[in-house]
Amino acid sequence: MDTANTTVPSLERRFELSPERPHPGIFVSDFYVLRSLEKPRQHIQRHVQLHRGLNILWADPNPPEKAASKKRSKVAGHTAGKSTFCRLIRYALGDVNFGNETQEYKIKNKFKDGWVVLRVEVEGTPWIVGRAFIDHAQHFAIPGGDLDAFLALETVPKTGYGDFAGLLDRHFIKPLLRDRFPGTKDEIHWQHLIPWFTRDQESRLLSIITWRGPIGKNNAISTDADERHYLMRLVLDLLPEGEADKLKEHEDLNELKRELDKVLPLTSARTDQAFTQLTEWFETKLEKLEGPLYLSAVKEEQRQKQEAINALRQSIPTTSEVETQRKKWEEAKSAASEAAAEFKSAKRRVTQLEKAIRGCEARLIEQHSQVNRLRGMAPVTVCGMPIAEACEAGKKHHAGRIDIEAVEALLKIFEEAKSQVESDLAEASENVAVQRLAKDQAEAAERDAQSAYLTLNSRREEKLEEYLLANAEQKTRERLINSTAQVLTQKTQEEDSLKIAKSEINKIGDEEAKARKEKAPALGHFSALYERILRFMLEDEEAVADNERIYGAVQHDGRKLELTANGRNDLDSGAITAAKLISFDLAAMVWGMEGKGHHPRFVIHDSPREADMAEDIYAGLFNVALALEKACGDQNSFQYIVTTTAKPPGDFNGKPWRLDPVLNALVPKQRILGLDL
């Protein structure tokens, strides 16, 4: 062993390992890649044996083939399958995938019936578990862990994985103080925790809660930052019950606050828009009045407008009034029609009388002529002989002369008749004049009645239209007032709710802070453990001057955990950040080894050296693991898997720590899957 590289600085005190946890909570003893489950022994593509304690999978970036190759590959150590090895282990243990879509596609294309199989012990109980590459839902688990019996099977029954998953939950979830996330009904499962214990290389050891990187496929079961802090505190048993009791209430308030913070600006914008609309419909402006005062002023203006509209409505002629006027017009029209008929009848009477007068005049002329003719005739004597006798005697007959007196009497009768007709005509002519006047008056009355009706009806229509328009605008203004009042009320309620929520959050925060003091001793113990491991990684010598000492702490930052590292020099570089995270993960594992919390004492760090870590700092990681193994004695109670492209320092580059094979990307059979993808 190269003592220069494996010297372990002395500890301020020994690890206080618990005899009740003599073995890792999870221990992977064998890793298999099988081409098929049919007769497994005949389809072994890769077998890697692991052991308790430190396990180093090395991908040599400078294999002998590189020196002989003209291409001199620069990625010989970076494409050999270190990350694939880690991802397949965590996949077999229940993680949701073993790579991004491209990586999974390549593996599935080469291993169409392929499986990853582990022999794994859960709190000392051995199992053989496997999951298919093609179908993530295909899996199996066989209790007992008899590899020879498994490899000798003709066909492996694809059953039992649910029992294995349930066992993981019973051992590592059910003992937690809470088995649900705060503020939700979601249960906590092993799949929520495995990303912490098996940080992905792509996470680049960026922060305490960066468990998976952005390049890989998203987890089907994801957690946010707060939930990850919650999970870590649960696992480390650093969450006091008093705080846990308040978490749901706190989370509900935080959710309410987040929702109010999101919706209140929208409500405020809606309120401003509503008030701006009001200014377009009301004469009252916003210059001097705001909010409720402006709304009150607008309501007063609205009331005054309503009074004017009510007065306008009262001025509208009623339907009854219009109908009465229409009937008057109909009556006047009927009277005019009757007057016209009377006038026409009177004119017809005059015409008839005039015709009668003309008849009388003709007869009078005729009678006068006859009287004059009779007066000019000689007197006629009468013989006295009967006409019959005279005719027999052959004597000529002479007619008797008309009686002039009779004719004159008749003439007098005609003259009297004419005089009567002329008198009637005069009377009838006067009646025509009377009827003409009556007709004209009736027609004038009809026109007046028609005009009155049309005017009244037109006035009703105009007033009604004016009223309907004004009323519609009034209703619009009323809706604007109501909607503005509602949104203003909503804004006020949201502002009040936000104030109350903030006040309650602060109150609960104070109560939680008080409750966290219960865990102060435990946190102090854990923080000291973290500091001791941090010193393993960052201090150069066994004894250092006080001004060269490294100081670190794990502290509560509210409901979060915060890591610090302080020294004489700047400790904010990426390498120091990685060292802090590695120290935290290892401290969490040792915490479980000491019988505290519920850590499975199983950690995978995939290529931590890739986080720009200096060689001497990187060597400190192995020193921690060696110190832990020494503290465990004959039975290591943890399993720590590290992959690396940097050559393991000193004796770490050999048994029992380095795994076989050493990966080599230039030789297909020396890749983790035994071929090029």
Secondary structure class reads alpha/beta
What is the H-and-E element order?
Answer: HEEEHHHEEEHHHEHHHHHHHEEHEHE
Number of helices: 16
Q: Termini separation (Å)?
A: 37 Å
Helical amount among residues, as a percent range?
Answer: 40-55%
Biggest sheet strand order reads: 2-1-4-5-6
Low-confidence stretches: 1-11
Largest sheet: 5 strands, antiparallel
* Rounded Rg: 61 Å
| Mean pLDDT across all amino acids | 87
Query: Which geometry do the CA atoms define?
Result: rod-shaped
Number of strands: 11
Strand content: 5-15%
Relevant terms:
single chain; 677 residues; alpha/beta; five-stranded antiparallel beta sheet; 16 helices; rod-shaped; disordered N terminus
In short:
This protein has 677 residues and is of the alpha/beta class. It contains 16 helices and 11 strands. The chain has helices spanning 3-6, 64-68, 82-92, 101-110, 147-151, 161-172, 190-197, 225-235, 241-281, 291-314, 319-375, 387-393, 404-516, 520-538, 574-593, 615-632; strands spanning 26-34, 44-49, 53-58, 115-122, 125-132, 139-143, 198-199, 551-557, 560-566, 602-606, 639-644.
Strand and helix map with partners:
Elements: H1 3-6, E1 26-34, E2 44-49, E3 53-58, H2 64-68, H3 82-92, H4 101-110, E4 115-122, E5 125-132, E6 139-143, H5 147-151, H6 161-172, H7 190-197, E7 198-199, H8 225-235, H9 241-281, H10 291-314, H11 319-375, H12 387-393, H13 404-516, H14 520-538, E8 551-557, E9 560-566, H15 574-593, E10 602-606, H16 615-632, E11 639-644
Parallel strand pairs: 3-11, 7-10, 10-11
Antiparallel strand pairs: 1-2, 1-4, 4-5, 5-6, 8-9
Helix pairs in contact: 9-13, 10-13, 11-13, 14-15, 14-16, 15-16
